[in-house]
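Meet today's protein:

…
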Amino acid sequence: MPTPASILKDTFGYDSFHPYQREIIENVLAGRDTLGIMPTGGGKSLCYQIPSLMLDGLTLVVSPLIALMKDQVEQMRTSGVPAVMLNSSLSPYEYQINMDSVRDGSAKLLYLAPETLFTGRISSLLSQIELALLTIDEAHCISEWGHDFRPEYRQLMDVRQRYPNATCLALTATATPRVRADIKSSLKFEQSNEFIASFNRENLYIEVTPKRDGIGQTISFLEKFKDQSGIIYCFSRRQVDELAAYLKMKGFSALPYHAGLERETRKANQEAFVRDDVQIIVATIAFGMGINKPNARFVIHYDLPKSVEGYYQEIGRAGRDGLPAHCLLLYNYSDVSKLRYFISQKEGTEKRVATEHLDAIVNYSEDEINCRRKPLLAYFGETYSDDNCETCDNCTAEARELIDITIPSQKFLSCVKRTGERFGAGHVTDVLRGSKNKKVLRYGHENLSTYGIGGDLTQKQWMHLSRQLTQMGYLQKSGEYSVLNLTPQAIDALHNRTQIMGHIQEDERQSRKVPETLNYDQALFAILRQKRKELADEASVPPYVIFSDKTLVEMSAYYPQSLESVLKMSGVGQAKLGRYGEIFLKEIKSYCESNGIKEKEKISFRERSDKNRRYMIVGEMYNAGESIQNLSERYQVQTGTIVNHLVRFASAGNPLKNGTDLQAQTSLSPEEQAKAIQAFEELGTDFLRPVFEKLNEKISYDDLKIMRLIALSQ
């Protein structure tokens, strides 16, 4: 007789079991209902696949996603296991063939979605056969406290009564103690038949970093993983499309995946990723559940996940082969505000659960002190005892020197107490900083002794301090609005004036480098200033209209020797370069030749900062061949908005290469176009009204916007 170990080796090719696989399989074979909690990549599937080959009768697997079923069935058939699925992806002929194989007993494994299970046709089919094992995959979907609750999963409780002789196996990779209890209660499992493997994935490097320039940070990260597979998760479909298109334009092998794509496109993109025909999939959280792709070397969360469970499940799709993988979460508090807005639209239990989930992932993301694994595993009821995991950003960061933060901590804790422990950190901060907003005045908090005593720190610094005090155990949050309450530890610290050591976040206003006063050549500056005055007088405009003092100072400091270098000076765009560039360049060159001076290099601000702004992305995509109409559809904006982006792009000194498309945007005759171009050459491209008036108000502003763009591109 085959044994679980022999099937493991002979059918699936593995030498040994993962933790708790053997115990779960033996429990199921003994006919005991079982709950198995195993991390993503921990081998949940084998826990029912091996029994299916040893039990008399059918093993039914309830799975939430067609993609998961298809992937599993293909793997089973490749391994010689007779498995089938019944879902809407099959043709009528394939559906009937699979039903026949279930009916005649040739199929040992049947995959179904929960909603399919309750149809009359399937109920009739299952009534004709012996059901040996009912497996509920992604069992956390049963619990309303789970991160992915699905109402149709609750009906599985009725299925148990319909097939009382079948053993039931519930499996999930993400379940908190409360969710586990809910699953067992719902399915009427005995408490003892629960097996919980460690949630710790030692091969995953976990990093959370502030999102300041999402696209730039993503590209910089991807450069480290050339020709390697990975997943980027985004919050919205629009963000998925935008990021995937931009990465593709930048030369990365990337495709989008979300529910808004046509079914065939979604299927093809997933297949391309699974088969390594494309390296990067940019997706909403709909992607990846049950996809057994072992060689994903990274997972990026471009936006904040909705819950710790979802986050854990998604990073679990990296490194399933046991080799090192990197998980990066880009954290931005604006993402939190966005999620809170969506949660505010919910009601009752759903709203309360979503708020708890969000609070947990926010606390995790903002923890700059603890090993990432400690709060992550603690969330699932597991204790991580090592002091340093050596594979997360907090454990590998250079130790920061602690400073005495007792006084600001006392201020904050006192203010929490004096406001009645009824408010969140934002309101407490407003009181400390002496805000006169409506909420502060409505509650009379301007009369508190703590009102206005915190003006020495910025709002961000107080919020950062509040997070530290929470992580240290002095504060705890409760309720839908994250109300702060003092812990006994905090009360003791206030009474005894306990010293508190920590960090005060650097004040961004102070940390920004104040531009150094340039050491510029005052003699050259005087020459350029005189030339500017002459040009201004000729045009009857103030001198600053030609160039600002800042521009002349930079010219006198860097001594540009080419039009390309002049363009790097502050305040010099394409139009002014074309009108005045040669004039000022001649003066600078003459001065430098007379004084033996060479050019000093200036790194353009645009090269440092503009690279990833929306208008830069639009401009680069346009130059790569995207039409204005295509870009309008991609970003779901009016064509005029795209034109404005392109104007900014061209005004910043970037050439536009798709002139034919520009010509197609206007119905003006060649003669009218020529007049408009001439008017822009005379009056500049900064303002449309002078050109509009010069052309006797006969050309519309919409057409003038296009003509300005054509003028800039020329």
About this structure: The first helix runs from residue 4 to 10. Residues 508-517, 604-612 have pLDDT under 50 and may be disordered.
